[in-house]
């Protein structure tokens, strides 16, 4: 089962952080069709946030067709990535892990690595459009 974590320094609303974490878990194959998300009550007690925040996140995920709520039972994943996509990700992840190790050996800290990665992704997307 997924465990949510909130970053109070991120500038991103707590409900959006929950939505993003579920989406990432789906993309990475950490959540599969039929898996149950933590109950609203469990998330509220673990993260000390308002129940409406969790409910809003779950509603957005349901509206996107990624989960479904079953009254009295819980919220379950209804969409997942294909096995082919997950296999491709495993290969790409291995290459990325080698790159990260090289970046750390070069003396880059985590914040610099993240900034470099994000700027490269953005500039690559712009080049793909052109």
Structure described in brief:
This protein is mainly alpha-helical and 130 residues long.
How would you describe this structure to a colleague?
With 130 residues, this protein is mainly alpha-helical. It has two domains: 64 residues, Winged helix-like DNA-binding domain superfamily/Winged helix DNA-binding domain (Arc Repressor Mutant, subunit A, Orthogonal Bundle); 47 residues, no CATH class. Helix content is 60%, strand content 6%. It contains five helices and two strands. It has a two-stranded antiparallel sheet with strand order 1-2. Helix 1 crosses helix 3. The longest helix has 23 residues. The termini are far apart. The mean pLDDT is 91. Pfam families: GntR (PF00392). It comes from Nocardioides luteus. This is GntR family transcriptional regulator. GO terms for molecular function: DNA binding; DNA-binding transcription factor activity. Keywords: DNA-binding, Transcription, Transcription regulation.
What are the key terms here?
130 residues; mainly alpha; Arc Repressor Mutant, subunit A; 5 helices; 2 strands; 60% helix; globular
